[in-house]
Amino acid sequence: MKKVLMMACIGLVVAGAFTSCEGRKQSGTVRLRFANVTTEAGILAGEEFIRIAQEASGGTLVIDHFPRNQLGNDVAQVENTVVGDIDIAVSSTSSIAELFRDLFLFDMPFLFTDHEHAHRMLDGEATRRLLDGMERIGLKGIAMWENGFRNFTNDKVAVRVPADVRGMTVRTMVNPLHLSAWQLFGANPTPMAFGELFTALQQSTVDAQENPLGIIDANNFQSVQRYISLTQHVYTPFIVVMNLKKYNSLTDQQRAAIDRAARESTIFQRERALEDEIAIREKFMSEGVNVVELTPAEKTQWRNLIINSELINMVRDRMDNPQLLDAFID
Questions:
Q1: Model confidence pLDDT, tens digit, residues 316-325
Q2: Are 54 and 63 in contact (CB under 8 A)?
Q3: What separation in angstroms does the CA of 30 have from each of 27, 122, 240, 260, 287?
Q4: Is the Cβ–Cβ distance between 241 and 142 less than 8 Å?
Q5: What pLDDT sits at residue 20?
Q6: Least trusted range by pLDDT, from 42-51, 166-175, 220-229, 245-254
Q7: What distance in Å separates the CA atoms of residue 190 and residue 178, rounded to the nearest whole number?
Q8: Reduced to 3 states, what is the DSSP secondary structure of residue 30?
Q9: 170/120 Cα distance (integer angstroms)
């Protein structure tokens, strides 16, 4: 009888300890690493995301912020999110299109007419299907932020029409569609790591580059490029992704907190990015940079070259689900 009572007591102690451990597991904090981009709007939105997620989780999420690509360039940050070394990352879609091929649709020139059109599509069903598809590579697509239209800078001439870039050495990402587009425009596209770009522009290793205004300003490219032409040839969003296993391992409250932070930080980030774009243009002009506004007729020259080319079929061929591009075009 004493032995039975002793075993029963031990069982109660073990059961109590197990319950206690389970309780701590459910109510314990989870620490996450958030790798962010270099733009001011992106950094502030990251801080907003963290504030909302931590509060909505009841303090059970603790998120460490690493802005300005501290944990590597866009590709490295997202690859490390896939394997779980980073929990949440922000990247330009173009940078990681080789990793997730349906993102090539955002490299289709002149796919969007303006910011309102772009945001409407980013919040639509086709984009939701695209984000859901990222689960097959171990990522949870949680938000689409504003990166902006890509514009052209150089230190030689005020570029207005494709003929103005003929023969120019233009830095591009290692992205076959960007290379093909600039070849179509008559330039000499040269892939180059982003970290090398400022020095290359400064030393005239390359003549020109193309990026959204926020990226141009954040990296001070205007100090070595006298002309910024608002070609708005490609709209490139930022995509916010999370390691899928980490997301699924969270409690219901924590996942709801992440989802809420994604929604509300997106509204905040897009509004701030558009405000910053206006302020950046005014800043550039005050610094003596030539900001070149294209007329509709000038922009049509660029667009017609794309329409009459095989580029749209190249985009489709690069994608795993080309019907997503058709949905955007429709």
A1: 999 999 999 9
A2: yes
A3: 9, 30, 19, 17, 46
A4: yes
A5: 39
A6: 166-175
A7: 10
A8: strand
A9: 31
Helix (H), strand (E) at residue 290: strand 290-292
Q: How confident is the model at residue 152 (pLDDT cuts 50, 70, 90)?
A: very high
List, in order, residues 6 or more apart from 18 with CB less than 8 Å away.
none
Is the pTM higher than 0.85?
A: no
Question: Tokens 């981009």 map to which residue?
Answer: 37
Q: CA-CA-CA-CA torsion for 242, 245, 249, 250, nearest 10 degrees?
A: 0
Contact call for residues 180 and 109 (beta carbons, < 8 A): no
What the block records as the tokens of 210 is 């193309």
- Can you list the alpha helix ranges (DSSP code H) found in the chain? 2-27, 40-56, 74-83, 115-122, 125-133, 176-184, 197-202, 213-218, 244-249, 252-286, 296-307, 311-318, 323-329
Long-range contacts of 182-191 (CB under 8 A, 24+ apart): 184/305, 184/306, 184/309, 184/311, 185/302, 185/305, 186/162
CB-CB neighbours of 268 under 10 Å? 18
Contacts of 86 (CB under 8 A, 6+ apart): 33, 34, 35, 71, 77, 80, 243
pLDDT tens-digit map of 263-274: 999 999 999 999
Q: Scanning the structure block, which residue is given the tokens 């709007």? A: 41
CB-CB neighbours of 275 under 10 Å: 11
Q: Report whether 243 contacts 139 (CB < 8 A).
A: yes
Residue 32 dihedral angles phi and psi, to the nearest 5°: -120, 150
The residues facing 190 across adjacent strands are: 171
The H or E element spanning position 34 is strand 30-35
Alpha-carbon distance of 35 to 43, in angstroms, equals: 10
Task: Specify the 3-state DSSP secondary structure of 39.
Answer: coil
- CA nearest neighbour of 72 among 44, 40, 95: 95
Q: Which of 60, 1, 59, 49 is CA-nearest to residue 26?
A: 60
- The secondary structure of 227-245 as a DSSP string is EEEEEEEEE--EEEEEEHH
Pairing label, strands 139-145, 188-191 = unpaired
